[in-house]
Amino acid sequence: MKISTKGRYALRLMVDLAQCKQGENVALKEVAARQGISLKYLEQIITVLTKAGYVLSARGSNGGYRLAHEPEYYTVGMILRLTEGSLAPVACLEGNENTCDRREQCSTLFVWEKLQKAIDDVVDNITLADIIANSADNYVI
């Protein structure tokens, strides 16, 4: 599994919005400048986040974007699954069911299942609030 630029940038965008005062709209061009990300690329990502209800948008002179919920609500897993799709390390674990024809004979399936569990345990237990608290210790996203 490799996280794409889209997934990494979506997480950075959400963290940036989470660091702003709650309820305050932020212009996407400001986020682009702070994060060093192309405005065009952020426009594509914000569309996905807005359609999913993770981000609210407002038009007008005080328009922009803000989180729909508190930073504690959003996990890294939520954001990455939205932008990346499955986080499964192998194709046979994608989706809700293991549909591999070799499931009963697969001697390595337990390895991929353990890896999937480890990935899920990490991404589903770190929130935007955790990232912000951790960045206070000089970690860079």
From TrEMBL:
Gene3D superfamilies listed in its UniProt record: Winged helix-like DNA-binding domain superfamily/Winged helix DNA-binding domain
Pfam families according to UniProt: Rrf2 (PF02082)
Signal peptide interval: none
InterPro entries: TR_Rrf2-type_CS (IPR030489), Tscrpt_reg_Rrf2 (IPR000944), WH-like_DNA-bd_sf (IPR036388), WH_DNA-bd_sf (IPR036390)
Keywords attached to this entry: DNA-binding
Entry superkingdom: Bacteria
Residue ranges of coiled coil: none
Name listed for the protein in its UniProt record: Cysteine metabolism repressor
Source organism (scientific name): Ruminococcus bromii
